[in-house]
Amino acid sequence: MSASEKELQEFRAEVAAWMRDNNPADPGFLLPQTFMEVGDERQLEFLREWQHKVWAAGYLGMAWPKEYGGGGVDAVFQSIADQEMRRHGVPICFNVIGLGWAGPLINDIGTEQEKARYLKGILNAEDVWCQGFSEPEHGSDLGNAQTRAVRDGDEYIINGQKIWTTMGNFAKYMILLARTNQDAPRKYDGLSYFLSPMQVPGIETRPIRKITGEFGFTETFFTDARIPADCLMGEEGQGWKIAMQTLQYERGAEAGAAGGQAMVRVTVDDMIKQLEGVKRDGESVLRDPVVRDQLVQAIMEEKAMILGDRRAHIGALTTDYPGSLPLSNKLRVTEMTRRMRQLAINLQGAQGALYVGDDEARQGGFWQRAYFNSFSATIGGGTSQVQANIVAEHILGLPK
Length: 400
What we know:
This protein is an alpha+beta fold and 400 residues long.
């Protein structure tokens, strides 16, 4: 039975009070803006403790099954909890690859043994997950993955390399796409999907330094690494199908995520507030008519995305192009986020050239750092160019 409006209002008030009372103080060091910047042990332990606290309070994984650490309630409660996390500006729930991609996948198609083994550790932040899809030299051609997995009795021997492995150096498990059949008639048919342990001999990670100076991504090398055969998800040769389902979660086109905040969210209102005090020709930049037009355009686009998300859940309003809003969500949101952060820097004038660590930088260089960090979201899960092709082919029916 669905919750009443009164129950939902009471729940919102309860969550708001908890977030207000438990929002941790500034730890005295720079916290990641997204899950892709967790670069050292201090950040990891701070965020691990916070995620565990949110889960223990009952505000994470609320729609996941109770027997596996979830709340077993309607997803609307998680949606409210997520809204209050955003509103109160609490830290991110960092274990996003587990919470948003691996966990929903295991919930939907995993065996009971896989659910019992993995789901609770994802929620309580004991088990960090990473993703082993992208490879050097293959760009966005995921179907051409060359990392090999060869069956040897009760084990698979893994050899190859993955790149852009977010939090690979901290991870206990990886969702891994590897080639089990070199001779398959189609390259996609030779791929298999593994829930691979990371802490085994033959698996090495090396951090990648980003333009921000931070870490978070790694390269992962497999050299005769042996993993148990029961790490295989589904059957050999089903890897491409399972990977595509994983990407549906990653791109926001499929529901099932545990909840929490994957990144520090900022709005156009936040941008306008940071521009107060910025002068141009002796007057507030906010009085410039061209600037005001740019801000109104940004407000309209932001509002359109909010309303589009609501519309996506009302079938009668999406009959023209079914699935168009969820499938285009990643492209629209990540590109708008990047443009909005760039506008925030441009409108700062000369101060826009300053960065984190400069005493004169507005808000400590928050917007500059946020702008640089925004590019990772336009690349991960398929670049904006790939997303545009998905919209063209799968929604508009255009030829390849």
